[in-house]
Design goal:
The complex is a heterodimer of chains A (164) and B (330). Chain A is mostly helical. Helix content of chain A is 66%, strand content 0%. The radius of gyration of chain A is 16 Å and the shape is globular. The chains are: A mainly alpha (164), B mainly beta (330).
């Protein structure tokens, strides 16, 4: 739904989504905000939704949020804020795999399963998280730039896949 | 969460979505709502030049406290104006019928701005006095001081699609803490405002008379329990007195990481505190700012924003259980 005017969405899904932690409902609302370029609201909803998800087995529920996060990133938003909480949620109870050897994001993402996407984002953001905790040594600025490029490449690839 | 309780008591939760043209290069937040007896709903929003990005819920204890992203070329300084919107509640077709943005710089009604180094307007609350709409907030100066800001708007002209400004003025105060920012109007009462923990009476353009709104024995009890009360909604008529939402901050795990909790307060017609609800969170966000409450027919409407990004209107039935209910604050 893309409103032509300022509106209260009347669909019941919006009323209940926030209360029942309905990922689909919140995602739909986040997507609506995204379409009207209200990225702050969209991010707030994404992180709100992720904060409610504790079950590591429900990875499939993250799919729309990952895709939306990729779009948000492409919209020029702060990389440090929205992806980090996303990843913190995802990496809980997960074994981090070494997937940083990816060279061609565009080709790779097309063949990734949702679980693999999750793992990649987890890995990348775990590095960012470590950086935020000050665990990285003096070279953290260099590493951080590298991580940012990694995130950007991944999100760009996901975004292209969405649009293709 | 209080929203869950509200929905079980005949309530609805409406996110407010603006179209892309309106939201471009600004954020609209902290809605203050007032509904007239004929169902005319008027909002005032804080319009800012930044976007606040912040993790929420159980993530906030692990991550940063958020950051500000400026939306215009001017960075490093928060700039606010205010934005009025009108909704027609009886039609249940909740579309904006008109909007107007008041340009505080161009208006000739603000001569006092030349008196000091002007910085920005801050959170306005809306109320009604007969047919007029009243706005009350404050002006923050670059010196770090604040002065109350008072505005009267004539009845809404639907044909001309605009509001008509009657008066804008700052109010002089003496012997008062000049950094307080939460100034609250009282529905239907001219020249009387609440500034926690006191109310003030306006005489001309001066706030002169200072009275306590609390009965002494209750005042002590309340402020020992919640010493950080410093804001909330305006005062709206309710039953034979007034109702408002107050908020206070509960310290979080990390430094500078607070959670805003809220309570409904009820006062008699003389503004004596009578009773309050349990503390609650609306939706579980750390930063929730409720600056609007209004009564329409058999329902209570509150307007609030989360993380300076999401605006909601929550309604629920008038019920005595509001005061005795226990709302999970998590």
């Amino acid at each position: 739904m893309i409103p032509n005017s300022h509106s209260f969405p009347s669909d019941q899904v919006f009323h209940e989504a926030m209360i029942e932690n309905s990922v689909d409902g919140i995602y739909e609302l986040a997507q609506t905000y995204f379409h009207v370029n209200d990225y702050g609201a969209s991010i707030a909803l994404c992180t709100f939704c992720l904060s409610k998800i504790d079950n590591a087995q429900r990875f499939e529920m993250h799919r729309p949020l990952i895709l939306l996060s990729a779009n948000l990133y492409r919209s020029g938003l702060s990389r440090r804020v929205y992806l980090r909480p996303l990843a913190i949620s995802l990496i809980r109870n997960r074994e981090i795999r070494i997937l940083v050897k990816l060279r061609s994001f565009q080709d790779t993402v097309k063949h990734l399963s949702i679980l693999e996407m999750v793992v990649i984002v987890s890995l990348i953001s775990r590095i960012v998280l470590l950086e935020s905790w000050g665990i990285f040594p003096k070279s953290k600025d260099v590493i951080y730039q590298r991580v940012c490029k990694l995130i950007y490449g991944f999100c760009t690839a996901v975004s292209r896949c969405i649009n293709s | 969460m209080f929203s869950e309780w509200a929905l079980k008591n005949g309530g609805t939760l409406f996110p407010i979505i603006f179209n892309a043209n309106l939201i471009a290069n600004k954020s609209l937040l902290n809605p203050s709502l007032s509904i007239s007896e004929d169902g005319t709903g008027t909002f005032v929003f804080r319009s800012t030049n930044y976007r606040y990005l912040r993790p929420v819920g159980n993530l906030s204890s692990l991550t940063s406290t958020g950051s500000i992203q400026y939306l215009s070329s001017q960075t490093g300084a928060i700039s606010n104006s205010f934005f009025l919107a009108h909704y027609d509640f009886p039609s249940n077709n909740l579309k904006t019928s008109m909007t107007i943005e008041i340009d505080r710089i161009q208006t000739p009604l603000l001569p006092f701005l030349s008196e000091f180094d002007y910085s920005t307007l801050e959170d306005l609350r809306i109320s009604r006095l007969d047919a007029k709409v009243i706005l009350l907030g404050n002006i923050a100066t670059t010196e770090g001081k604040r002065r109350p800001f008072y505005c009267e708007i004539d009845s809404i002209d639907r044909d001309q699609d605009q509001f008509r400004l009657l008066k804008q003025q700052s109010l002089e105060i003496s012997n008062m803490n000049m950094i307080e920012k939460n100034w609250l109007p009282i529905e239907g009462r001219y020249g009387e405002f609440i500034r926690w923990p006191m109310s003030l009476k306006m005489s001309g353009d001066r706030l002169a008379q200072v009275i306590s709104i609390f009965q002494p024995e209750l005042q002590t009890e309340i402020f020992i329990e919640q010493p950080n009360i410093y804001g909330g909604s305006q005062f709206a008529r309710y039953e034979d007195g007034y109702i408002s939402v107050i908020h206070f901050r509960k310290n979080g795990i990390r430094k500078n990481n607070h959670q805003y909790l809220h309570q409904f307060f009820f006062y008699d017609k003389d503004l004596n505190f009578i009773k309050n609800s349990k503390p609650f969170s609306f939706l579980g966000f750390d930063t929730e700012f409720c600056s609007g409450i209004s009564i329409y027919k058999d329902k209570i409407y509150v307007s609030f924003s989360c993380n300076d990004s999401l605006n909601f209107v929550l309604s629920f039935n008038r019920t005595e259980s509001l005061w005795g209910s226990t709302h999970d604050s998590k």
